[in-house]
Fold:
Amino acid sequence: MTQPFEGLAIGGKRLPSADGRTTAVYEPATGDVLAQVAQATAADVDQAVRMAHERFSTGAWKQMRSRERGQLLQRIANKIREKAELLAQIESRNGGKPISAARGEIGAVANTFEYYAGAVNKFHGQTIPGNANGTVMTFREPLGVCALIVPWNFPLVIAGWKIAPALAMGNTVVIKPASVTPLSALALADLVLEAGLPEGVLNVVTGSGSVAGSALVTHPLVRKISFTGSTEIGVGVMKQAAEGIKRVSLELGGKSANIVFADANLDVCIESSLFSVYDNAGQDCCSRSRILVERSIMDEFVERFVNRTRTMKVGNPADEQTEMGPLITPQQRESVLNYIHIGDSEGAKRLCGGEVPTSGDLARGNYLTPAVYVNVTSGMRIMQEEIFGPMVCIMPFDSEAEAVQFANDTPYGLSGSLWTRDIGRALRVARAVETGMLSINSSSSVHIEAPFGGVKHSGLGREQGMTALEHYSEYKSVFIAND
Ligand code: NAP
Structure:
């Protein structure tokens, strides 16, 4: 059977790559091929960037009245809602996400475009009375061509966090989705044209990070790079961006802590903590993969958490009842299994999970049962490294100071939670944890209205909220003399 072909989206057209190469895109739940997708060469990336640059330079897009640009973004949000089920099916089949979760993600993408539709004409410069001889005005100018590089774990959500504020400020964009999950970005490229976005303002190049991603990062006409992915690749992107003095923002890895004090409401906390680590099969940069529990409730917490983990419904993403789907690729599952091996050999105790289903329908996909470890110490590799899979370590602490010390004891600082009914303690600990985001008595990290991003090795810059608009614009100061 021939699979559908998906071309590059450049200048409003769908094109094969310059050398005609394609790559297969798979369904994680079955291993079946979903589509053949064009593999962009450096020449294709050059074509996409030049197209975006030409559209930026002619001025029509950046000079469009901000209210009209906002209306266009709103039409994109409406289109996403109109095609929500189709997009959710793509995201669920290509990403292995439970369909219920995929529907939620598409709703969030529409909300992102809607937020920036409203933000466009509320973000502007100032008038600054400098001295007696005149006044300074500041303008928020767009940057030019923005290269948006996206990972595979939340393909359209993360693409939306970058595209919507970039377009809102009048930039043009070239997006490189992850090789294994390019389908939703390509679907979006079609949909924005239907919404009326001028051709060439948004372009999508599919292909490998080492060829297409690298060509994008080093292209001289790219003025800004927004990268979400691993810390390792992010370091290389930042070095390459330095060569061209390109603006860069980085959303990288995490190893977030979930701190549970003895006075927490455990009924709420356990259910929430479960999804804060197993959501998206643990392939979540905000995953709370280290649970720190006050010693007096450690035994009760562990028993209840493990019992609930054992009842997690792992299965077909198309099933409405599924709580956890497969991992994205066989290689990603191998990587997590390697950490299971490391955890076992480091002397930690695995209480459940870490097994590959070998019979029935699940044997065809990249499934892995969720694993819980205890008897861990902060220095162990499974407590220090981002695993990006359904695996959690639970460790006791004896004091507030020790909880903070353990929470901060990794190179990362992206997200986290803390559970207590003592408001003073909640505020003290929230201020002391080195992280970009933290939730108190909740596991929620994403609020479109609020800045999202990390500290330490988790990244640089912020997405979402009005803050994101700062990262897609630059001040211009204009002085007007009085006479
Ligand atoms: P990754 O391997 O770093 O890849 C991310 C993106 O970069 C992909 O599109 C990849 O293309 C591309 N890429 C690879 N090499 C490149 C290069 N030399 N130059 C330019 N681009 C290159 O990350 P991933 O495995 O897709 O995603 C998982 C990681 O993302 C985890 O570490 C996770 O924590 C992080 N993440 C962070 C956030 C956040 O907001 N902080 C959110 C989500 C995920 P290919 O697909 O072709 O390799």
